Amino acid sequence: MLDYSRLIIDPIDFYKLADTLPSEDQALLAELREYLQAEVTPVISDYWNRAAFPHDLLPGLAKLRIMGVNYKGYGFRERTNLLNGFIALELARVDPSMAIFAGVQGGLSAGSIYVCGSEEQKQRWLPGMAALEKIGSFCLTEPEVGSGAAGGLLTTCRREGDEWVLNGAKRWIGNGTWADLHVVWARDEDDNQVKGFVVEKGKPGFSATKIEDKMALRVVQNADIVLKDVRVPHENKLEHANSFADTAKVLMMTRAHVAWLATGCGLGAYEHALAYAKKREQFGRPIGGFQLVQDLLFRMVSGVTSSMTLCHRLSQLQDEGIMTDSQASLAKAHTTVSARVTVGYARELLGGNGIVLSEQVGRFVADAEAIYSYEGTREMNSLIVGKALTGQSAFV
Known about the structure:
Layout: H1 23-40, H2 44-50, H3 58-64, H4 81-94, H5 96-116, H6 119-130, E1 136-139, H7 149-152, E2 156-160, E3 163-174, E4 181-188, E5 194-200, E6 206-210, E7 222-233, H8 244-279, E8 281-282, E9 285-286, H9 291-319, H10 325-350, H11 361-373, H12 378-390
Parallel strand pairs: 1-4, 2-4
Antiparallel strand pairs: 2-3, 3-7, 4-5, 6-7, 8-9
Protein name: Acyl-CoA dehydrogenase
GO molecular function, one term: acyl-CoA dehydrogenase activity
Organism: Palleronia caenipelagi
């Protein structure tokens, strides 16, 4: 017999993609959504306005155990990349900065240790990171080196006995002002290869300064970092981080997370626009009943749904172990472009109220601009896809 309850349209998950998750994963998402709506949504605009991070919310997130759910062992949940993607979506639909915090903590930083660390290093650091007892950062981008990190990293390292000496500068480092563990990538003066290190908080010569006056992702505490003769014990060099190819393994693993994050940004703006269309009245009735408003809502939900579907399949490929770099790049580029368009439609629907912080949409509009360039620009990702299509590299 037909189950008519399943015919009800969910305006947020239009194609019921979350229904493909096991029931225990759906229950975790519901618990996370309830926590975010109750604890984060009411206060996050104030934090965004003050460019402050909600440290007081971390104990609640820690109880949910949502960091690195796709990893095995070390206190992680040992679930799927697909669940990890939906978690990023849920965080970003409330505030993209919260999803970026999770992406740095459970993805880039913990992921570097998970992929490149020795067993001893994993046992030493990952349980605390999974429990949010130790906060991590990922130090790759530099003031003069962004997309060219593969061939032009300027931060250097050299070995002196049982220590490594690091010198250089990093920029746009999420969690950089308050992290306990900094994963720093530097070029070895001896063999010119990129190596990875865990620099623990309080090391002499290490300084982090908050980047002020950002117009986007204001909750993320990005830092300018300077390393001046920072001495790191050899035991803190990630054992399997010996070339940029190892760095690239981490970046590829986390690129799907960024695609989910961008989709969540668009979803958050659309969700607030939809609620506004139902409550805002003009000419004696809600504006949601007008044709041009419904057309905007159609454009938004179609953009969000297409991006969500793309991310869903990408995470399935990742879980099957057959996701390629070009597939991840296609999703990252597509979803960030789509998010930019979607948040614009949401702002348009709200008219002048779209730039008022109390109506929420404005911060998604601003955040989408940063996510568009975050962790791989559209142009760089398009060339990765182009190489896969043609067999010819257009990189210079």
